Amino acid sequence: MASSFPPSSSSATSPPASPASSSPSPGFPSPEGRASAPGSHSSCASRTTRTSLTLDYNGASVRTDEAHVVESIMKATEAIAGDGKGVSRTPLTLVVKKKGVPDLTMVDLPGITRVAIGDQPENICEQICSIIMEYITPEESIILNVLSATIDFPTNQSVRMSRKVDKTGERTLAVVTKVDVAPEGLLEKVTANDVNIGLGYVCVRNKIGEELYEEARNAEAQLFERHPLLSKIDKSMVSVPVLAQKLVMIQAGMISKSLPGIIKKIKDRLAATEAVGFRASSTPRPKPLPQSSGFSAWPRSRRRRFS
């Protein structure tokens, strides 16, 4: 799986995550079945059992591991965007290779910042919104809208932005985080679908602190199994593994849907190129001048010098 995002100088708390994931309004990771808009890269699962993590940015490739990936992302983000909490369009790509992981490409975007802080430019919100719109507008993109369980979904700015480019919700999937912080009424929020999320909701528990991936998944499974409120949510709508499988299926469907159009565009471009080449080859060429004594096109006065 490859995850790529335009860096922000705020750092992620869990991989792969937006550098500005601590912002009140999260961004839009966008899995794509193609290689690639700026910052999205295709990859495949490794055949080995060991996990391989690599950060690619500014022409460099840095090896890391699960225990140090957050630190590595922080350093890479600072190298690209500086330490003033700014943002950059330069992609930072995290490539994860492991046997059994889903083959996905995701673009993880900075969270929306409404008010500039520190050394951020005054138009930081406009910059981030511009980056987000660049990635979620193409119809080939799936919008993975990350929502906190603590907020009101219909009034959330990220929801409003996604609805601008996907009015029917047919390519929008919502991921609900912080479910253990605000479990009350969550079942009603994800089943009522007041904001027209066409691909549905998936509730997850992110890793906390120094938890490793497997530890976090075990804790998540226990939470949705034993919590008096969260356990009532349908199992097809909870956990990171369910989210991963759903993304794989959605991506495969999007590729099947988009492939005929992509093939047509390629054929049209090839036909246009061949037509241009045919016109160029049909242009009459000037006839060569008569040759004499091996000195074609030379004046007679010059030819006499060599006689």
Q: What portion of residues belong to β-strands?
A: 5-15%
Average pLDDT metric:
76
According to DSSP, the number of beta strands is: 8
Task: Report the sheet with the most strands, covering strand number, pairing sense and barrel closure.
Answer: 5 strands, mixed
Question: Architecture of the domain at 139-279, according to CATH?
Answer: 3-Layer(aba) Sandwich
What is the string of helix and strand elements? EEEHEEHEHEHEHHH
**CATH first level of the domain at 139-279:** Alpha Beta
What is the overall silhouette? globular
Distance between the termini: 76 Å
Percentage of residues in helical conformation: 25-40%
- Residue ranges: pLDDT <50 for 5 or more in a row? 1-5, 7-48, 292-307
**CATH H-level name of the domain at 139-279... which superfamily?**
P-loop containing nucleotide triphosphate hydrolases
Class per helix and strand makeup: alpha/beta
Strand order of the largest sheet: 3-2-4-1-5
Radius of gyration: 27 Å
Number of helices in the DSSP assignment: 7
CATH-derived topology of the domain at 139-279: Rossmann fold
Word description of this protein:
There is one protein chain. By secondary structure, the chain is an alpha/beta fold. The chain has a domain at 139-279: 3-Layer(aba) Sandwich (Rossmann fold), CATH 3.40.50.300. The chain is 34% helix and 13% strand. It has 7 helices and 8 strands; from the N terminus they run E-E-E-H-E-E-H-E-H-E-H-E-H-H-H. The chain has helices at 69-81, 124-136, 157-165, 186-192, 213-226, 240-282, 300-305; strands at 2-5, 52-57, 60-64, 92-97, 105-107, 143-148, 172-177, 201-203. It has a 5-stranded mixed beta sheet with strand order 3-2-4-1-5, with helices on one face. A 3-stranded parallel beta sheet has the order 6-7-8, with helices on both faces. Helix 4 links the parallel strand 7 (172-177) and strand 8. The chain is globular. It starts with a strand and ends with a helix. Keywords: GTP-binding, Nucleotide-binding. It is found in: Plastid. Residues 1-25 have a biased composition (Low complexity). Residues 39-49, 280-295 have a biased composition (Polar residues). InterPro entries: Dynamin, Dynamin_GTPase, Dynamin_N, Dynamin_stalk, G_DYNAMIN_dom, P-loop_NTPase.
